[in-house]
């Protein structure tokens, strides 16, 4: 999870809220889209890190068997 993704989620939430308060449905929808896109990117990065960790774990097990 990166700080940039978190900041983009907050930015999207603020934009969404501003759109709601002002009645600007376009701004509100843009805020929702930014928030969702940033969350999806964060989840994808977390999944990638988990897969890389699993691969490294398997590599370590295999290297122990080589010794």
From TrEMBL:
<feature type="region of interest" description="Disordered">
    <location>
        <begin position="1"/>
        <end position="32"/>
    </location>
</feature>
<protein>
    <submittedName>
        <fullName>CsbD-like protein</fullName>
    </submittedName>
</protein>
<dbReference type="InterPro" id="IPR050423">
    <property type="entry name" value="UPF0337_stress_rsp"/>
</dbReference>
<feature type="domain" description="CsbD-like">
    <location>
        <begin position="3"/>
        <end position="52"/>
    </location>
</feature>
<comment type="similarity">
    <text>Belongs to the UPF0337 (CsbD) family.</text>
</comment>
<dbReference type="Pfam" id="PF05532">
    <property type="entry name" value="CsbD"/>
</dbReference>
<dbReference type="InterPro" id="IPR036629">
    <property type="entry name" value="YjbJ_sf"/>
</dbReference>
<dbReference type="InterPro" id="IPR008462">
    <property type="entry name" value="CsbD"/>
</dbReference>
């Amino acid at each position: 999870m990166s700080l940039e993704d978190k900041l983009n989620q907050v930015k999207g939430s603020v934009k969404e809220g501003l759109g709601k308060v002002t009645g600007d449905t376009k701004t509100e929808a843009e805020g929702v889209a930014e928030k969702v896109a940033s969350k999806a990117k964060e989840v994808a990065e977390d999944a990638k890190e988990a897969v890389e960790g699993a691969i490294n774990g398997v590599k370590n097990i295999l290297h122990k068997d080589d010794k």
